[in-house]
Structure formats: structure tokens, C-alpha cells
Design a protein that fits this description.
The chain is an alpha/beta fold. The chain has 8 helices and 7 strands. It is 40% helix and 20% strand. The chain has a 7-stranded mixed beta sheet, sandwiched between helices. Helix 2 crosses helix 3 and helix 6 packs across helix 7. The longest helix has 18 residues. The relative contact order is 0.16.
Length: 226
């Protein structure tokens, strides 16, 4: 198994934010939203207009936009620690006409201000590999969920070999710029395995069965808080 090689925790230059926003995330984001809504239905979570969802590590808020466009009525707090990402998030949200339902906020997801047990759902796509010790993010996301709330987290899974990394880069970023390919490569090296995530969640009382491989490059956590 490849050793984990950390990358910067926050992508907070204008160039990094613009590179990220320009990449083709469409299929991945649509799949994430469809799977999130399927988990909502499976776990019987209510997401009406009185409810709040936290999107931890929202980037440029592309997933919240897709989620609202798919019919979700809940208010979404789109949180990120990178100001440059949030600048583009605000532009994307306004362009979609969704400023009343999606609120971008500057926030460190290792120390959230929300009170215990107040949110109906916490979702996150591709924040965990940025965090050196992500157990604090999981603990905070779990803490703020109300009983019956849904934790839905997806991220890259670290491949077993350098050859596997290059195969994934060619397959999923081959048409992107060399810089974007390198960003994806670094993210794969910084990712955790599904087994590492399952072990990390055990102190929170989350069953190992809540963590599954859901593509050739992603693991997903889907857990309902008791």
C-alpha cells in the first residue's frame, strides 16, 4: 500500500480555486447528490424547508447547487476554510439564483460553531484527504447532527500502488491540464483507505459497515445518528 503523502489543508489561492472550479465535476457531483438523496430516503431523514444541511468543505458550492436543483427544500450552509473558494461559491450560487437557500460561510470544519444535535444532515465530498488528522472533522460533523440525522461523506481512496494512481489520473483527468492532473495525483496520494476511515469512526460508535467502496476511487460513509 502506498504511504499517505499530505497535501496543503487549504487550497486558498485564486489560481487554485479557479482551477478547481473549471474542472469537470459534473458526473461526480450528480452521482453524489443522487446517492445522498437515496441515503436520505433509506434512513427516513426529513429535509423540508425548516431543516438545515451542512456541506463541509463545499469548495465552490457546486454540490449544494445540484442538490437544490434536484428538489431539496432544506437550507444548505456551504462551509469552507478557503476564502478564494467561497468567493467563487458566492458567484456560482448567485448565478444559479439560489442565494436564499444556500449560504456560503468561512469555517474550519474541525471546530464548528453549531450547537450539538441541531442539523438534519451533514454531507461532504472530498474534504477528508485535505486534513492531516480528519478524526476531528468526523467528530464535529457527528456532534452537530440531531438524532436521526444523516452523515454522508465521500472522498478519494488511496490506491495500492503508484501504477494504480497513474491509471486513475489517465482515466479521470486525462483530458485536463497538466496542472489539474497533478492536483488529482496529489489528492490520490493524500487520500485515506476505507479501512482507515472505518477504524477512525469506531470511537464515535459508527459501525464499520457504514463505510463502503462506492467506485474504483471513492469510499463513502453513510450513517444515521441514533
Amino acid at each position: 500500500m502506498l504511504p499517505r503523502v499530505l497535501e496543503p489543508e487549504v487550497m486558498d489561492t485564486a489560481e487554485e480555486a479557479e482551477d478547481y472550479d473549471r474542472m469537470d465535476h459534473g458526473t461526480v457531483n450528480q452521482t453524489f447528490v443522487a446517492d445522498f438523496l437515496a441515503a436520505v430516503a433509506t434512513h427516513g431523514v426529513a429535509l423540508d424547508a425548516s431543516m438545515q444541511i451542512l456541506d463541509a468543505g463545499t469548495g465552490t458550492a457546486l454540490i449544494p447547487i445540484v442538490l437544490v436543483q434536484a428538489g431539496c427544500a432544506a437550507h444548505i450552509v456551504a462551509a469552507d476554510a478557503a476564502e478564494e473558494m467561497l468567493k467563487l461559491a458566492a458567484v456560482n450560487i448567485a448565478r444559479a439564483g439560489l442565494s436564499s437557500q444556500i449560504t456560503p460561510v468561512l469555517r474550519d470544519c474541525k471546530a464548528l460553531p453549531e450547537a450539538d444535535g441541531t442539523l438534519a444532515a451533514v454531507m461532504s465530498n472530498s474534504i477528508i484527504h485535505h486534513i492531516p488528522e480528519p478524526s476531528a472533522v468526523f467528530a464535529e460533523c457527528w456532534r452537530i447532527l440531531q438524532p436521526g440525522g444523516l452523515l454522508f461523506v465521500r472522498d478519494l481512496a488511496r490506491p495500492e500502488s503508484a501504477d494504480d494512481v497513474e491509471h486513475l489520473v489517465r482515466t479521470y483527468a486525462g483530458a485536463e491540464s497538466l496542472r489539474q492532473q497533478q492536483l488529482f495525483r496529489q489528492s490520490l496520494h493524500a487520500a485515506l483507505t476505507a479501512e482507515e476511515i472505518a477504524e477512525m469512526l469506531q470511537p464515535l460508535g459508527i459501525a464499520t459497515t457504514a463505510v463502503t467502496m462506492t467506485s474504483d476511487r471513492h469510499w463513502t460513509v453513510s450513517a444515521r445518528k441514533p
